[in-house]
Amino acid sequence: MAVWEADAVHTHPVGFDIASTGFVNKVWSVTVLAQTVATLSTSGYRVVHLDADAWRSIDDFHDAIAGGLAFPDYYGRTLDALNDCLGDVAEQAYGWESSDAGLVIVVHGFDLFHHRDPITASALSRLCQSAGQYAALFGHRMLTLLKVEDGNFTFEPAGLLPVPWIAAEFLDSARTRSSR
């Protein structure tokens, strides 16, 4: 089963844009994020919000993700275990339902967390990228938006793909104080 219909660029333009650039996008503007989430929610996507700015320890990180995506009690609280559980989420074992059009994970304050723990933050982006690709193999839509406070924020690529800005913010000029 295809993840997207041939006319998806017209029927699901926001989700299709995110998936076509690698399943994980950065977003800076509060307005752009709100519009994107509203559009995806209206289209039947389940949206899970995670507050990375509040993660002061690796335990906070694992607690938030496990709670937000309804991980099982046996979750091992390591990056390997996170990879395994995100694979289960991609298969829709938990975290969302088959009746959902897709799943969107919104990680607020990603750049702030990245400054505190760049290894874990980069791993999270890579694992979300991988899970999005894996979900597509099953005909599922699993997208991640990394909300950042710095319109110039960059970091190492997720897997082999760079993490692009969401389409509305692709141009540097779209990420200025006057456009926020």
Task: Write structural notes for this entry.
A four-stranded parallel sheet has the order 1-4-3-2, with helices on both faces. Helix 5 runs parallel beside helix 7 (118-137). The chain has seven helices and four strands. The mean pLDDT is 91. With 180 residues, the chain is α/β, with parallel strands linked by helices. It is globular. The chain has one domain (24-170): Barstar-like (Barnase, Chain D, 2-Layer Sandwich), CATH 3.30.370.10.
For the residues shown, what is the average pLDDT?
91
The level-1 CATH class: Alpha Beta
Strand content: 5-15%
Strand order, largest beta sheet: 1-4-3-2
Overall CATH architecture: 2-Layer Sandwich
Number of strands: 4
Helix-and-strand structural type: alpha/beta
**Uncertain stretches of 5 or more adjacent residues:** none
Radius of gyration: 15 Å
Which key phrases capture this entry?
7 helices; alpha/beta; four-stranded parallel sheet; 13% strand; Barnase, Chain D
Short note summarizing the structure:
With 180 residues, the protein is an alpha/beta fold.
What secondary-structure arrangement, pairings included, does this model have?
Blueprint: H1 8-11, H2 13-20, E1 24-27, H3 30-42, E2 45-51, H4 58-68, H5 79-90, E3 102-108, H6 110-116, H7 118-137, E4 142-147
Parallel strand pairs: 1-4, 2-3, 3-4
